[in-house]
Write a structure and sequence with these properties.
By secondary structure, the protein is mainly alpha-helical. The chain has 13 helices and no strands. The longest helix is centred in the middle third of the chain and has 25 residues, at 129-153. 38% of the residues are buried. The model is unreliable at 63-67 and 279-287 (pLDDT under 50).
Length: 287
């Protein structure tokens, strides 16, 4: 899809041999991974700290306050905090309304009403609804990427880092359902600008896979498209859950996603062991 957006349709056929090599690297699937996939995982239950990281859950929940806006006439609240609060509430409104009704139905009046701000206040922050949508996406994406990178770099081993990063990503999306809908569905179809930004956003997470090139001698020539294919596959997995409305179950897919991310670089057996949580470390795997 990214190549189509870049006007590179004519180059797609040349990628077929590399994509075939990538796809066949997963088979036959080792017993460790097939056994794990047959296990029935209990459904995820929300925790008390769910949310609060991305647009959709930035501001205090509406049920904890009588009104989404700040109390009128409070002289102890600084102007800077008022501006910050307005911006968070607007971004929450954008994410929640888009997730519920779609970008096409989103309009500035509804956003302002949901955020408990005036239209003048909205236009002090954003040029129009697309601008507000893009900022909501960027804020949530930056928060998610920071969480994933912290998990990735906390591991001394690249293989375990990839698994930890995926676990962090899936947990983040599962606890931020409105933003997950925006990032996985709406950003791809809202406008050409949002689609381009969404594609770039997926690529930023794929950087975790770059060290895998050193793990796969002789595969450097196909590494770029391999990384694109893996990132696209994991995105489709997330998208599938978002479309079904069960994004909260995404963390259950961690073993499958880790196997998809690692097998083309380190082989199916080692990838399966890492994917199911075994500690498989070899010399040369440190970042």
């Amino acid at each position: 899809y990214s190549r189509v957006l870049r006007g590179e349709r004519g180059k797609l056929l040349a990628l077929v041999p590399d994509l075939v090599a990538w796809a066949t690297s997963y088979y036959p699937a080792p017993t460790a991974i097939t056994t794990e996939l047959r296990k029935r995982q209990p459904p995820r239950t929300g925790g008390p700290l769910d949310g609060g990281h991305a647009p959709g859950t930035l501001a205090p929940h509406a049920r904890t306050v009588s009104r989404r806006g700040l109390p009128r006439g409070d002289q102890n609240v600084s102007r800077s905090f008022v501006v910050h609060s307005q911006r968070e509430r607007i971004l929450d409104a954008v994410a929640n309304l888009t997730a519920a009704e779609g970008y096409a139905e989103l309009n500035v009046d509804r956003i302002a009403e949901q955020a408990a701000v005036g239209l003048n206040a909205f236009y002090e922050h954003f040029a129009d609804k697309e601008d507000a949508f893009l900022v909501a996406y960027e804020v949530g994406h930056a928060k998610g990427l920071a969480i994933v990178e912290r998990a990735f770099f906390a591991e001394p081993d690249w293989r375990q880092g990839v698994r930890a990063g995926l676990a962090a990503l899936f947990e983040f999306l599962a606890t931020e359902p409105s933003f997950a809908h925006v990032a996985l569905i709406d950003a791809m179809i809202a406008t050409p600008i949002t689609a381009e930004r969404s594609n770039i956003g997926v690529g930023s997470f794929a950087r975790m896979l770059v060290p895998g090139v050193a793990e796969a001698p002789g595969q450097s020539a196909r590494a770029p498209v391999t990384i694109e294919a893996i990132a696209g596959g994991i995105f489709e997995l997330c998208l599938h859950h978002a479309l079904r409305g069960d994004i909260q179950e995404l963390p259950q897919m961690l073993p499958s996603a880790a196997y998809v991310a690692l097998a083309p670089f380190i082989g199916s057996e080692d990838a399966a062991h890492v994917a199911v949580g075994a500690d498989v470390r070899r010399r040369g795997t440190a970042r």
